[in-house]
Amino acid sequence: MRPSKRQPDEMRAVSFERGISKHAEGSCLVRFGDTQVLCTASLEEKVPTWLRNSGKGWVTAEYGMLPRATGERMRREASSGRQGGRTLEIQRLIGRSLRAVIDLKALGEVQITVDCDVLQADGGTRTAAITGGFVALHDCLAWMQARHMIAIERVLKDHVAAISCGIYEGTPVLDLDYAEDSAAETDANFVMTGSGGIVEIQGTAEGAPFSEEQFNALLALARRGISRLVELQKMAVA
């Protein structure tokens, strides 16, 4: 039995609250169970130096956790003068995932930064950030379209979402919370598009190596979970 009493293929309750920030061009508060991430998408009419005069835009991301997002207060990374390796790895993952569904040429020479701030962490913060970050990005693009800056159907190629899976007490399970994540024998994150394309897979055995059969079981769970997340994204932005 899972600590949350969920079935192996059962996700936590997921919700998207759009328009949470009155200043950002796009924003979304995403909840995966008790994990809560505030995602804001900000438009800048400039691009990184290496993209100037290329005719292409850029989508990037930043990620951070508030000091009391977890059980004990964490020191702000700004106070130490640098970001940690985990933070850098996660924000690069978010950026790669969102760019996978954007036509940067059709976007034009602008940059959209998606900030993902973890308000409360209970496992799956990176997957929630990618999934909610997409909704914030969508709304930023809709803001641009309303001002005749882009045609959203040319810029946005597909949906993208992410989910965690793992092997807990010998059973493949979907959408790990912290209690499972901290005790799982195998832990993996899957990023996929709405059409089923794989953007990225991160998988780690915490103890004994996992088999190809177990990996395929995790992949099947992930496909089911991401299909549901994309349905919820579509309902949220409709």
TrEMBL record:
<keyword id="KW-0820">tRNA-binding</keyword>
<dbReference type="Pfam" id="PF01138">
    <property type="entry name" value="RNase_PH"/>
</dbReference>
<keyword id="KW-0694">RNA-binding</keyword>
<dbReference type="InterPro" id="IPR020568">
    <property type="entry name" value="Ribosomal_Su5_D2-typ_SF"/>
</dbReference>
<dbReference type="InterPro" id="IPR036345">
    <property type="entry name" value="ExoRNase_PH_dom2_sf"/>
</dbReference>
<dbReference type="GO" id="GO:0009022">
    <property type="term" value="F:tRNA nucleotidyltransferase activity"/>
</dbReference>
<feature type="domain" description="Exoribonuclease phosphorolytic">
    <location>
        <begin position="160"/>
        <end position="224"/>
    </location>
</feature>
<keyword id="KW-0698">rRNA processing</keyword>
<dbReference type="InterPro" id="IPR018336">
    <property type="entry name" value="RNase_PH_CS"/>
</dbReference>
<feature type="binding site">
    <location>
        <position position="86"/>
    </location>
    <ligand>
        <name>phosphate</name>
    </ligand>
</feature>
<feature type="binding site">
    <location>
        <begin position="124"/>
        <end position="126"/>
    </location>
    <ligand>
        <name>phosphate</name>
    </ligand>
</feature>
<comment type="function">
    <text>Phosphorolytic 3'-5' exoribonuclease that plays an important role in tRNA 3'-end maturation. Removes nucleotide residues following the 3'-CCA terminus of tRNAs; can also add nucleotides to the ends of RNA molecules by using nucleoside diphosphates as substrates, but this may not be physiologically important. Probably plays a role in initiation of 16S rRNA degradation (leading to ribosome degradation) during starvation.</text>
</comment>
<protein>
    <recommendedName>
        <fullName>Ribonuclease PH</fullName>
        <ecNumber>2.7.7.56</ecNumber>
    </recommendedName>
</protein>
<dbReference type="InterPro" id="IPR050080">
    <property type="entry name" value="RNase_PH"/>
</dbReference>
<dbReference type="InterPro" id="IPR002381">
    <property type="entry name" value="RNase_PH_bac-type"/>
</dbReference>
<keyword id="KW-0819">tRNA processing</keyword>
<keyword id="KW-0808">Transferase</keyword>
<feature type="domain" description="Exoribonuclease phosphorolytic">
    <location>
        <begin position="10"/>
        <end position="140"/>
    </location>
</feature>
<keyword id="KW-0548">Nucleotidyltransferase</keyword>
<dbReference type="Pfam" id="PF03725">
    <property type="entry name" value="RNase_PH_C"/>
</dbReference>
<dbReference type="InterPro" id="IPR015847">
    <property type="entry name" value="ExoRNase_PH_dom2"/>
</dbReference>
<comment type="similarity">
    <text>Belongs to the RNase PH family.</text>
</comment>
<dbReference type="InterPro" id="IPR027408">
    <property type="entry name" value="PNPase/RNase_PH_dom_sf"/>
</dbReference>
<dbReference type="InterPro" id="IPR001247">
    <property type="entry name" value="ExoRNase_PH_dom1"/>
</dbReference>
<comment type="subunit">
    <text>Homohexameric ring arranged as a trimer of dimers.</text>
</comment>
